[in-house]
Amino acid sequence: MAIAAASPIENSARPLEPPLGALGAAFAGLFVAGLVVSTVRAGGSPFPSPFASADDALTYFRDHPAAVRTGAVLQYASAIPLTLYVAAAVARLRRHAEGFGPALTALGGGLAAVFLLCSGTVSWVLTVSEVTADPATVRALHTLAFLSGGPANVMATGLLIAGISISVSPRKALAPWLIRAGLAIAFVAVLTTVALTVTAAAFLLPIARFTGMAWLITAGFRLPRS
Fold first, then answer.
1. Are 120 and 149 in contact, with CB atoms under 8 Å apart?
2. Distance, CA of 24 to CA of 215 (rounded, Å)
3. For residue 222, what are the contacts with CB-CB under 8 A and spacing of at least 6?
4. How far apart are CA 72 and CA 126, in angstroms?
5. Closest to 201 measured CA to CA, from 170, 155, 168, 142
6. What does the alpha-carbon distance between residue 51 and residue 38 come to, in Å, rounded to a whole number?
7. At what angle do helices 204-222 and 153-168 cross, to 10 degrees?
8. pTM for this one?
9. Apex CA 38: angle with CA 34 and CA 41, to 5°?
10. How far is the CA of 197 from the CAs of 40, 57, 81, 136, 200, in angstroms?
11. Predicted pLDDT at 154
């Protein structure tokens, strides 16, 4: 008598996804490394603020092209793990939520990565000797690098964080305190847009940026796959 063939076992393996927490840490690590390494290579001089003297900024870019280029490359590179983070996060959120939350996550995260790429590219251009020969060009590119890597990137990152928080809130896929913290950070990040007209509000930029990075790392390790 023939033996009946065993019925196939359904494969319940988890979807193949990069680890969100590690991607968040890679993004933050590369960005912070760009700030630290460029400052060290410039002899302790930090990247100049566009609100400072134009002559001081011009001197910085002329005297420290290697430092500026190092920071620009690391900032540019940080957009790669951020893009992967956004793609993996959206894939998970679509299994948790419906509505505009995942779409907001994708839009905010995509814009944040694009603004980082833009800022890194413009900063790299500021290391070209022909560019630094023209003070007006240096001032324009310096301001563009700041606006794209500062208020624009931070605001978009706030939308990314808000999208994740809104998506997981109905089913409480993250701890309530983490959701509330995410919404608060997102609010401050969007509020940094005020710095475009009120320069005194620029102090909100590092607060929103670094708390946002910490939130993305924490949420990345805690957000369930299914």
1. yes
2. 9
3. 174, 175, 178
4. 10
5. 155
6. 20
7. 40
8. 0.89
9. 145
10. 32, 21, 32, 21, 9
11. 97
pLDDT of residue 8: 40
Cα–Cα distance for residue pair 100/121, rounded to 1 Å? 31
What span, in angstroms and rounded, lies between the C-alpha atoms of 181 and 161?
10
d(CA 20, CA 149): 22
Quote the CA–CA distance of 161 and 24 in Å, as a whole number.
Answer: 12
Structure-block tokens of residue 13 = 């393996």
Residue among 162, 64, 169, 56 nearest 107 (CA): 162
Give the residue carrying structure tokens 């324009």: 140
Q: Are 163 and 105 in contact (CB under 8 A)?
A: yes
- The Cα–Cα gap between 156 and 111 comes to 6
Q: Residue 96 phi/psi, 5° resolution?
A: -105, -35
| Pair 223, 168: CB distance under 8 Å | yes
Structural domain boundaries of the chain?
Answer: 20-222
User: pLDDT tens track of the chain, all 226 residues?
Assistant: 344 444 343 344 556 778 899 999 999 999 999 999 999 999 998 888 888 888 888 999 999 999 999 999 999 999 999 999 999 999 989 887 777 899 999 999 999 999 999 999 999 999 999 999 999 999 999 999 999 999 999 999 999 999 999 999 888 888 999 999 999 999 999 999 998 898 888 999 999 999 999 999 999 999 887 6
One-letter amino acid identity for 77? A
One-letter identity of residue 186: A
First-to-final CA distance of the chain? 44
